[in-house]
Design a protein that fits this description.
Elements lengths: L41 H16 L11 E2 L8 E2 L4 E2 L4 H12 L9 H7 L12 H8 L3 H25 L4 H14 L8 H9 L11 H16 L9 H12 L9 E5 L2 E5 L1
Antiparallel strand pairs: 1-2, 2-3, 4-5
Length: about 270
Amino acid sequence: MHTPHIRPSRRTLLTLIGASLVAGPLIASQTATASPVGLDDPAKKEIAMKLVSSAENSSLDWKAQYKYIEDIGDGRGYTAGIIGFCSGTGDMLDLVELYNRRKPGNVLAKYLPALRDVNGSDSHDGLDPGFPADWRRAAQDTAFQQAQNDERDRVYFNPAVQQGKADGIGALGQFTYYDAIVMHGNGDDSTSFGSIRRRALAKARTPAQGGDEVTYLNAFLDARVWAMKQEEAHSDTTRVDTEQRVFVRNRNLNLDTPLDWKVYGDSYHIG
């Protein structure tokens, strides 16, 4: 289960006061040369899942989130699962369609017409009252868990890692890309991942272009914060300020453990 206090989310409408205060203890300075090991290395990917879960679910136990579902009142309908699939943004529909292709007649199949109808809105029409309970039932099925993993990778994780490697940035930089795509999507609007990256490129060169990695990552995080502040739902920037910037400041470009950080005022550690 989620922590009993208000769940900080990439879409939360509450700005938590004072959460941008000092981050946790700094680790020893790391070399500025990125390792060839990318974020898609299994150990690094596990770290990435825990980092995102700390911001999305106030927990490092990301696998406990398969069953998570609620409407957090952000205009995107139901938010659910390990990456916050939303009934109003299309990624939940894609997920349930994938699950149904793999396991026809599953407990969520009957909601596909409603998910198509509510896409693009915050409506629950055709979903209530049974959808949340059925989502939690489906989450006990390893086939549904795998579908969540695969859609997360297809839509969010793999594009972030691929672009990061093309830009010559290490595991930390690839994570900053991944977290940005999770929150902002990879669309065409002014606050999407692509727009954030273009804003950063106007200020600094990537390592692949001959630039300094730390300088570029700071430019990217500056652009990310700008994008977050364009929407009240994203206005708490501690997942950048007291998490990602801590790692950049330590020049921990390989995202090596131990890692200490804060999100929304809560402290986390990976040893």
